[in-house]
Amino acid sequence: MTNIHPIVVHFPIALFLTGFALDVTGHLFQRETLKRMGLILIVLGALGALAAMFTGQLAEESVEERLSGAGERVLDTHEDLGKLTAYLLLAVAAIRLMLATSWLSRWRLAAGAVLAIYLMLGGVGVGALTATGYYGGELVYRYGAGVQLAQPAMDLQDHQTAMPAQRDHDHDHDKDDDDD
User: What is the pLDDT of residues 94-120, one digit of tens each?
Assistant: First the structure.
């Protein structure tokens, strides 16, 4: 099966970060449209985090066998953070859905406390998402996880012999053609 984890991971990053920013802005400026857009993107981002976690687990074995010991430790950290982040973002989405229901708004003090918890956990979720992405980037760019070269690089001599031969010209490109 093709490793689709590198494709899937961009969705929770883009959706959750954008959604949380829109939602916080909507709460600060009392803009219902921003709150609704934020809610939808937060839920989609949390579901995307689950998909990233599952596709990461599927990709782990094919990537792990090619890593050094240090790379494997980074992979373990990335995996642990990925699971934590997915479950945390699901909790944040659930709390945000709870805030969107009308029954909670009847109890002003409880709604304020739930909003404060949501904002704190959402901020922690942004940090967890960032840390998870950082370690995923380290896996690829420092340890070469999932990187496969299409073909070995040719050395300079092979490259030169593979180039088409230059044709000799019997005219000068710098000379004006108006010498008729």
Answer: 999 999 987 777 788 888 999 999 999
| Alpha-carbon distance values, 170 to 55, 114, 156 (Å) | 62, 84, 29
The answer to whether 44 and 89 have CB atoms below 8 angstroms apart is: no
61 pLDDT band (50/70/90 cuts)? Answer: confident
Query: To 10 degrees, the CA torsion angle through 173, 174, 175, 176?
Result: 100
- CA 58, 61, 67, 68 dihedral sign is positive
Query: HEC states along 43-104?
Result: HHHHHHHHHHHHHHHHHHHHHHCCCCHHHHHHHHHHHHHHHHHHHHHHHHHHHHHHHHCCCH
